[in-house]
Amino acid sequence: MPGTDEATKAITAAVVDSFVDTPDPRLRELLQGLVLHLHDYIRELRPTIQEWEYAVDYLTAVGQTCGPTRQEFILLSDVLGVSMLVETVNEQGGGTESTVLGPFHVVESPERESGDNIDLMGTGTPCVVSLRVTSADGGPLAGASVDVWQCTEDGFYDVQQPDVQPLGNGRGLFRTDGEGRVWFRTIVASHYPIPTDGPVGTLLGATGRHPYRPAHIHFIVEADGHRTLTTHIFVADGPYLDSDAVFAVKESLVVDFAQVDDEEKAREYRVTAPFRMAEFDITVEPATDKDAQ
């Protein structure tokens, strides 16, 4: 009878070989690589049967927590740093840095016009966000779509409070003008805890980690012939910038939300003074053949 080490390697070899006839070469590569790394992990750490059963039950609970307004698997990926690792290895060459999608991009954002107010609650510190979308060569991208979503001043997204917030609060789907520009009115987003009432919260509690994310606004930017960009802007000087629960902060995405006291400028932007204003340029890279795959 072969030794334990030889037996485990024989199992790994058999599983890897079972995928050898997979027609899609990339799928074959991904599955065989997963088996190799996962089996090495098992050999190294030697989990007990009870630990394996707990892991299966835990992943089952993660799946059962997912629904139309919550994606617990994305949240798990986020807190393990996997989401940011995937974003980083797929980073655009010279464009605006990407960051995580997050678990709350789960509804279709309402179409809005430049200058609209995405805050439907009338609470919080008034804010104006002005964006300019360009290609890598610096040319403006007219007609680019900019999908926006953020939380309230209390740190909740609309889908978390269906009895409090109208669906679509803090969200908007905009189109850039001929100069690649778009702006909208909102409130200053708050830092907030990721959901802790599910399996991911259990993990954070067991490991003594806090659940907080720094204040931010999400964007997905799409333009013809260009790579889709998922990113945030983070509110400078806010808490948790150095300890984001999902490891998503990048220095280039931290933006000053400056206070503006000028009454004339407030009238220009259809807000009341004082208000906060953030200006940010977004650069997207041209699409490649690999992006089409």
Question: Helix count?
Answer: 7
β-strand number: 11
Helix content: 25-40%
| Arithmetic mean pLDDT | 94
The helix/strand order is HHHHHEEEEEHEEEEEHE
Low-confidence stretches: none
Termini Cα gap: 46 Å
Large-scale geometry: globular
How would you sum up the major sheet?
5 strands, mixed
Rounded Rg:
22 Å
Task: Please state the structural category.
Answer: alpha+beta
- The percent range for strand residues is 15-25%
Strand order in space, largest sheet: 3-2-7-8-9
How would you sum up this structure in a few lines?
With 293 residues, the chain is an alpha+beta fold. 29% of the residues lie in helices and 20% in strands. The N and C termini lie far apart (46 Å).
Describe the SSE topology.
Elements: H1 4-18, H2 25-45, H3 49-65, H4 72-79, H5 82-89, E1 126-135, E2 145-149, E3 171-175, E4 181-187, E5 192-193, H6 199-207, E6 212-213, E7 216-222, E8 229-235, E9 254-255, E10 258-260, H7 263-268, E11 275-284
Parallel strand pairs: 1-11, 8-9
Antiparallel strand pairs: 1-4, 2-3, 2-7, 5-6, 7-8, 10-11
Helix pairs in contact: 1-2
Describe what this molecule looks like in 3D.
The protein is α+β, with helices and mostly antiparallel strands. It has seven helices and eleven strands. It has helices at residues 4-18, 25-45, 49-65, 72-79, 82-89, 199-207, 263-268; strands spanning 126-135, 145-149, 171-175, 181-187, 192-193, 212-213, 216-222, 229-235, 254-255, 258-260, 275-284. The chain has a five-stranded mixed sheet with strand order 3-2-7-8-9, with no helix packed on it. α1 (4-18) packs antiparallel against α2 (25-45).
